[in-house]
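Following up on my earlier thread - several people asked me to post the actual chain instead of describing it. Fair enough. Here it is, all 136 residues.
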Amino acid sequence: MKNASLNKSIKHVNSAVKELHQAGLDIVTQLRSNSTSLFAELVQEGEAVQSRAITAVTTPVTRLRQELSQRVQLAPKVDQAREVVSDNVQRLENVFQEQFGKVLDFAGLPSQAELDRLNTRLASLRREVTRLKRAA
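Reply from S.P.:
Thanks for posting it. Predicted structure:
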């Protein structure tokens, strides 16, 4: 009676381990199948952001160049232009990071924390199976 209960527990734990393992494999399969299209989307979005950023940077810089050519004091305007370019580059980086995060969320990719919890649970179940096998 005790062995039947123990065998049933072992089968239950083994089944849970197999389900977790399959879930991990399913995640890897999904990542592989989505990686090409995800990369293409990221490249496309990056190119679009880059184009908008170049336009956003070029227009103020062009105006500033025209203004600089009319003035004798160049140093303060050059510094101002550097600040504008630096600010726009920072904005570009922020937009790209935000878009990249949205793509990852949209793809349904698990977070590192979720993967860590899954690995911890899997390790715990493996230890339990080993303990139950030894007890049997």
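The chain has a mean pLDDT of 78. That should answer part of your original question.
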